[in-house]
Task: structure prediction
Amino acid sequence: MTIATIDTLPTEIVRGRGGGGPAPTRTTVAYGFWIFILSDIVMFSALFAAYAVLSANTAGGPTGRELFNLHNVFIETACLLFSSYTCGLGMLSAERRERVRFLVFAAFTFALGAAFLTIEISEFAGMVGAGAGPSRSAFLSSFFTLVGMHGIHVTTGLLWLAYTVAQVLVKGLRPVVLRRLACFSLFWHALDIVWVGVLTLVYLMGVR
Amino acid sequence: MDGYEQVLNDRPPGVEQQETTANFLSYTVGLVLAIAATIGSFIVSQTDLLWPPGVPVGLIVLAIAQIGVHLVFFLHLGSGPDNTNNILALAFGSLVVFLVITGSCWIIANLNDNMMPMPAH
Result:
């Protein structure tokens, strides 16, 4: 209890504005990762722009209204949303050093993410099988690029989650592992935010 | 146990003192609001509840509302001092996203309008 932390200083108000001493490592790590996420979202914005520009150019091929199955899309959305929720609860358990509970929530997060990916892959396979692959029209090229890029991010997230869980099992819930978990959780929540854009622009506007 | 003290004082962004803003309740409130926004989007897109030409605007409003819910309840962006830099970065990121998307749509729509009629070949 001998550490005089910045908590005791009356300069609380100047923290984050250069005063009150150095920020905790977790704050700076999360800030750095937040910058990465924002740059990733800027990359997605270019793909969104490409889709918005090209979505009407179907070259006589199938349109979104004929291709999209909103029933599947609703299940996909629910999977991602609930996996975001279980990911958040898993982070809470990890911070409280509740190892078993963390592992259960991580398993739920993984299973829901994998379910999302399975539905998406079968949807893509069905479209390609029906002659609506990425080479059919500019609309489909941009569709597969945008939605496929999100799918690749989810795949990466699942691999990352498995890797992080392995670290928790081997190293325990140490501060450094907790910081990596916090970065994963930021990434996973950000993917859900990108999906809100995909759902709205591609699917809900595409079927009208 | 100095190391352990340090751990307890290690705060996530936006969490002041030992009081944590991230708890079960905040995630659950966020989940409920996000579900409401999602179901709202599906209803708006699948029914004629809104004036039909206004549906895209309604969907965009609901999407922005849901993104806000995610940022506040899942990513815990708040007004705390630790979050000042996160919010500034978010503001800049949003500006770039806005410029890329509206700029592309604007320029291409203009090009499309000014395109010469192409002969069928």
Confidence is low (pLDDT under 50) at residues 1-9, 13-19 of chain B. Helices of chain B lie at 2-9, 24-46, 55-74, 84-113.
